[in-house]
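Example noted here:
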Amino acid sequence: MTKLELLVSVMKDGKWYSTDDLVSCVGHRFSATKHVAQKQGYQFDKRREGTRFEYRMVSTALRPSA
């Protein structure tokens, strides 16, 4: 399973995940994987909870291929 597939499988439920959660599931460069997902049409929300950030996937629709 690629890191992108792993990220999508974890976050497709729409729940909020902390940076620590994503590092333990996807790896310490989860933000690079999230960037790749965004380029493919996935959308994420980001919020700050105290001193840490949390992320959730809000759209799993991929852009149509050209």
Notes: The CA atoms of residues 40 and 65 lie 9 Å apart.
